[in-house]
Specification:
By secondary structure, this protein is an alpha+beta fold. It is built from 3 helices and 4 strands, in the order ββαβαβα. The strands form 2 sheets. Strands 1-2 form a two-stranded antiparallel sheet. The chain has a two-stranded antiparallel ribbon with strand order 3-4.
């Protein structure tokens, strides 16, 4: 099976959506869960965030940014801001 983008490889974290394969690397999943946990601890269960919260304010890793953007926007059709608790639960469940 090929990957949607050349920089994506097959592995255990691939989501098969129709003919597309979308990967969120386990390192990004761990980082996202950690950031969600930090935001929830700081501001409570109702805190919202966007996928940009998982990255620095500079575009130093465009591949990872696109990987998470693909997961957030195209695959799950999430709003720009979502509750951190919802995102944490989605990622932890393997979505």
């Amino acid at each position: 099976m090929g990957a949607l983008f050349g920089w994506l490889t097959t592995g255990p974290d691939i989501l098969n959506i129709g003919q597309k394969e979308i990967l969120m690397h386990s390192s990004l999943r761990s980082k996202a869960i950690t950031i969600c946990d930090q935001k929830i601890a700081q501001k409570g269960d109702t805190v919202g965030l966007s996928f940009y919260a998982f990255f620095a304010n500079r575009n130093d890793n465009p591949e990872a940014l696109m990987e998470v953007a693909e997961w957030w926007i195209r695959i799950h059709r999430l709003d720009h801001f979502e509750k951190a608790i919802k995102i944490r639960e989605m990622i932890a469940s393997g979505l």
